[in-house]
Write a structure and sequence with these properties.
Strand order of the largest sheet: 1-2
Structural class: mainly alpha
Low-confidence stretches: 1-12, 17-24, 404-414
Number of strands: 6
Strand content: under 5%
Radius of gyration: 23 Å
Number of helices: 13
Shape: globular
């Protein structure tokens, strides 16, 4: 059954589905609901290089960043790389509750997909740029456990890496101090991560068909996913926090997940509260000396943020793109499946929420069918294939310098 939506128009209710004896057949979207659906696209989003990182969008930087991302020699023991926990086949996470480098970490590994569209980084937002966040696991004693001196010495002594560094930045790492080289490594790693972008999903195909009034194409979107979408933008109120094409507002909320690590009341993860403190005390934030943007436009957000009591136990709202590939879920990795995530919100214990925080969440009290439909919608946000990335074969001719820096040689954003 098709509705009264004219081609290219969103000003009417939209109907789809065919009646079946054992399930609801007709899904109707009002004009308001159609508008909400369209707000989650189009995808991919426009992107421009990060002005705070002068090698953002640079092909040489992305190449060097990829090499260093998988290089275990950056770690103090030579046994761990960033790629240990961020695995392409797991949507650039790792599929475990909490991974370990030199020791087990306190949080679940977040996906790196679409990071170029984020404004805060890590579960607690302790970094305000992708390059600053890229440095953090290098020096974290539980992860690579390295330091500026070790990183700089390694890059300087490896002739090929030193050559590629100079091609990227126009200066030899031997002529920079240790900290500057560490920052440079963070910036080329960020340039690599900026290339990791999810593809179009079944939801995007439905959304775009709806936008152009193409009923035939829109009708290919499964009925259970449509019903779940209606819950997502309506009864579930999910799109209040999971907004826009990225399905996240990029901010921090308390969702009733314990902030005790492993249930131990003596081990507390304060989330955004401590994240803000770390951010403001870091010399690598956008207010510091390593911001390459003379106008410091991106630093405005950092200038105005401050830790408040309500931030205790708040964690960043994740993007839902490819969400089916990123379990286990929550900052702690304590929820294993999407079905269990939906159950968490359906049976939410409001007593675990901040009394002085937002009053957004309430138990959804979904039926079994509604829960299944919402999961079906979430699964429609997955690409229908594994992340389209394969590592380079590094048996390539060694780097050679031609006397000309390649800082301006930008690649076309995918």
């Amino acid at each position: 059954m098709t509705g009264a939506l004219a081609a290219g128009s969103i000003g009417a209710a939209w109907f789809t589905g065919a009646s079946l004896a054992d399930e609801p057949g007709v899904v109707e979207f009002s004009e308001t609901e159609v508008s909400r659906i369209l707000s989650h696209g189009p995808w991919p989003m426009p992107w421009s290089p990060d002005k705070s990182n002068r090698v953002s969008g640079n092909a040489h930087a992305a190449d060097l960043g990829e090499r260093l991302f998988f290089d275990e020699k950056l770690s103090v023991k030579g046994n761990v790389s960033c790629g240990t926990c961020h695995i392409a086949e797991y949507n650039w996470t790792d599929g475990v509750k909490r991974n370990k480098g030199q020791a087990e970490v306190d949080r679940n590994t977040p996906s790196l997909m679409n990071m170029r569209h984020q404004r805060w980084f890590a579960h607690d937002g302790a970094a305000d740029s992708l390059w600053a966040q890229s440095m953090r696991p290098i020096v974290d004693p539980r992860e690579l456990a390295s330091n500026a001196a070790h990183v700089a010495q390694y890059v300087r002594k490896d002739a090929d890496l030193a050559c590629r560094y100079e091609k990227t930045f126009g200066v030899s790492p031997a002529r920079q101090d240790d900290e500057a080289v560490l920052v440079g490594v963070g910036k080329v790693m960020a340039a690599f991560q900026e290339t990791l972008v999810t593809d179009v999903t079944p939801f995007d195909q439905f959304r775009d068909a709806l936008a152009r009034g193409d009923h035939a194409a829109a009708s290919l979107y499964p009925r259970d996913a449509r019903r779940g979408l209606k819950i997502f933008i309506g009864k579930g109120n999910c799109s209040t926090c999971h907004t826009g094409p990225m399905f996240t507002n990029g901010e921090f909320h308390d969702i009733g997940v314990s902030h005790f690590i492993d249930g131990d009341s003596k081990k507390v993860d304060a989330g955004r509260f401590e994240g803000i403190k770390k951010l403001l005390s870091s010399k690598f934030n956008l207010l510091g000396p390593y911001n390459d943007d003379p106008a410091r436009a991106g630093a405005v957000k950092t200038t105005h943020v401050k830790a408040e009591h309500r931030n205790f136990g708040e964690f960043k709202v994740p993007s839902l793109r490819n969400v089916g590939y990123t379990g286990p879920y929550m900052h702690s990795g304590e929820i294993v499946t999407l079905d269990q995530v939906v159950r968490h919100y359906s049976e939410l214990n409001v007593d675990r929420l901040h009394a002085d925080g937002e009053s957004i969440l309430r138990p959804l009290k979904l039926s079994q069918r509604e829960s299944a439909d919402l999961v079906a919608f979430l699964q429609s946000l997955n690409m229908d294939r594994a992340p389209p990335w394969r590592g380079k074969e590094y048996a390539l001719p060694p780097c050679t310098l031609d006397g000309k820096a390649a800082v301006e040689d930008n690649y076309a954003a995918p």
